[in-house]
């Protein structure tokens, strides 16, 4: 019997820790994505590119907290920034304005073409949620459109057709919304239009059909962090949303600071109306941010009219101000970690070197799979990529489904046993902490896995 690719005896500590967790945490996890069968590996510590589990195994980490840790685990400058900040401010959090908020916001307005003003949140989910609320208030419309296979967080309006069963997902050029969770209502289903990624003709047709009801189109400019929007598609989408008065939201929670310092929008040369950020921006702490056009972002300005507090004393309970609040928004320790991370990334050559290193790993892996006669391609951009076991072109969610998932899963479990941490079927994220020896070991591990598993 194997456990996570590891023998039972080798992961005894993980197995016991998981059993204990199951008594008090449903499924033994604090987020469903952390689970994999028969049980996840429980970690004890981490350093640079490595994770260490409770049984003492070391893993080269390609998950990096779902891409957040672009400088690896515990980068000395990030750790220093956190301790310096705590010493300097004498507390952990103010709950009032402080100077770092504007400092980090200025960085975002400098880097991101679509960002004139910024609001911080505590997660990527909160960022897309706020962006959608702004779009609704700005346009006076209520529905949104999202793309099949794109993830924006776990709330009802966007929790459709992220990983839909294709038997329930309708036609490829006119997908139907498939809920990702129980507990969602029939009404929810009417509030979201599903679009086919990288299919401009069908997207445009659907947008024109629903234009009067659509407040926003939200998308990951690079689906899942590894399937880029085609140039014509993304420019076409900008054009048609502008014409139809639909707010264009780029969800750059994954691509922000990874495709470039200014995200995917900078490289595409497309200016969205609103941008959601997260992950890398927090240097390993919980964060999100919404940035966008001044006239849209200013809807949250409490000076605009009666805000929620003054409304308490008003005769009418209507308010002109778009509600946005949060106990920990703009947390000074989180912002210090984020700023330290961005300063590392700003140094000349850092992101280029990281992308080149990622590219090198991708090419080496492609060579190995070719040698073993396994149809395979790597897809990605910047420092994120995925291994897709098909030679057919992959432009969207449905194309992805043509790959050999069973083989990929078997390889991923074997890779775990060999000390390569990729959550089964997940993408690979790289960090500045990954060194040449990590790359070589990773390629060797793939070769061993292929040797063992491919007949
Ligand atoms: N948007 C995208 C593109 C994401 O990848 C994620 C998380 O993986 C989110 C939004 C949600 O971010 P968070 O997990 O910080 O709430």
From TrEMBL:
<comment type="pathway">
    <text>Porphyrin-containing compound metabolism; protoporphyrin-IX biosynthesis; 5-aminolevulinate from L-glutamyl-tRNA(Glu): step 2/2.</text>
</comment>
<keyword id="KW-0663">Pyridoxal phosphate</keyword>
<dbReference type="GO" id="GO:0042286">
    <property type="term" value="F:glutamate-1-semialdehyde 2,1-aminomutase activity"/>
</dbReference>
<keyword id="KW-0808">Transferase</keyword>
<keyword id="KW-0032">Aminotransferase</keyword>
<keyword id="KW-0963">Cytoplasm</keyword>
<dbReference type="InterPro" id="IPR005814">
    <property type="entry name" value="Aminotrans_3"/>
</dbReference>
<keyword id="KW-0413">Isomerase</keyword>
<dbReference type="InterPro" id="IPR049704">
    <property type="entry name" value="Aminotrans_3_PPA_site"/>
</dbReference>
<dbReference type="InterPro" id="IPR015422">
    <property type="entry name" value="PyrdxlP-dep_Trfase_small"/>
</dbReference>
<dbReference type="GO" id="GO:0006779">
    <property type="term" value="P:porphyrin-containing compound biosynthetic process"/>
</dbReference>
<comment type="similarity">
    <text>Belongs to the class-III pyridoxal-phosphate-dependent aminotransferase family. HemL subfamily.</text>
</comment>
<protein>
    <recommendedName>
        <fullName>glutamate-1-semialdehyde 2,1-aminomutase</fullName>
        <ecNumber>5.4.3.8</ecNumber>
    </recommendedName>
</protein>
<dbReference type="GO" id="GO:0008483">
    <property type="term" value="F:transaminase activity"/>
</dbReference>
<keyword id="KW-0627">Porphyrin biosynthesis</keyword>
<dbReference type="InterPro" id="IPR015421">
    <property type="entry name" value="PyrdxlP-dep_Trfase_major"/>
</dbReference>
<dbReference type="GO" id="GO:0030170">
    <property type="term" value="F:pyridoxal phosphate binding"/>
</dbReference>
<dbReference type="InterPro" id="IPR015424">
    <property type="entry name" value="PyrdxlP-dep_Trfase"/>
</dbReference>
<dbReference type="Pfam" id="PF00202">
    <property type="entry name" value="Aminotran_3"/>
</dbReference>
């Amino acid at each position: 019997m194997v456990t996570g690719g590891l023998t039972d005896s080798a992961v005894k500590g993980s197995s016991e820790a998981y059993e204990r967790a199951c008594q008090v945490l449903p499924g033994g996890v604090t987020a469903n994505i952390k689970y994999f069968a028969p049980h996840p590996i429980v970690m004890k510590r981490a350093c640079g590119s490595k994770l260490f589990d409770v049984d003492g195994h070391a893993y080269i980490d390609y998950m990096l907290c779902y891409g957040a840790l672009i400088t690896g685990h515990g980068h000395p400058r990030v750790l220093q920034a956190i301790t310096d900040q705590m010493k300097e401010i004498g507390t952990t959090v103010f709950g009032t304005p402080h100077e770092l908020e504007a400092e980090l916001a200025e960085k975002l307005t400098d880097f991101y073409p679509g960002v004139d003003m910024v609001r911080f949140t505590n997660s990527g989910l909160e960022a897309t949620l706020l962006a959608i609320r702004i779009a609704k208030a700005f346009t006076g419309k209520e529905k949104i459109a999202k793309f099949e296979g794109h993830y924006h967080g776990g709330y009802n309006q966007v929790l459709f057709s992220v990983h839909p069963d294709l038997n329930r997902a309708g036609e490829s050029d006119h997908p139907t919304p498939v809920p990702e969770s129980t507990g969602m209502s029939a009404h929810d289903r009417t509030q979201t239009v599903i679009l086919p990624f990288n299919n401009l003709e069908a997207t445009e047709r659907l947008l024109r059909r629903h234009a009067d009801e659509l407040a926003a189109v939200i998308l990951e400019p690079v689906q899942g962090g590894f399937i880029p929007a085609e140039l014509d598609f993304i420019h076409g989408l900008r054009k048609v949303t502008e014409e139809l008065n639909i707010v264009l939201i780029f969800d750059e929670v994954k691509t922000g600071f990874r495709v470039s310092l200014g995200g995917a929008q900078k490289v595409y040369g497309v200016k969205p109306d609103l941008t959601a950020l997260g992950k890398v921006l927090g240097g390993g702490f919980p964060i999100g941010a919404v940035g966008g056009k001044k006239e849209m972002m200013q809807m949250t300005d409490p000076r605009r009219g009666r805000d929620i507090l003054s409304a308490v004393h008003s005769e009418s309970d209507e308010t002109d101000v778009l509600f946005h609040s949060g106990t920990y928004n703009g947390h000074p320790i989180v912002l210090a970690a984020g700023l330290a991370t961005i300063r590392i990334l700003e140094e000349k050559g850092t992101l280029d070197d990281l992308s080149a290193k990622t590219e090198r790993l991708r090419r080496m892996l492609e060579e190995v799979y070719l040698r073993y006669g396994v149809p395979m391609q790597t897809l990605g951009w910047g420092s994120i990529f995925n291994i897709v076991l098909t030679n057919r072109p992959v432009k969207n969610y449905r194309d992805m489904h043509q790959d050999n998932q069973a083989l990929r899963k078997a390889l991923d479990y074997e890779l775990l046993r060999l000390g390569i941490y990729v959550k089964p079927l997940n993408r690979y994220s790289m960090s500045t902490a990954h060194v040449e020896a990590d790359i070589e070991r990773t390629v060797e591990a793939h070769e061993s896995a292929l040797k063992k598993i491919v007949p």
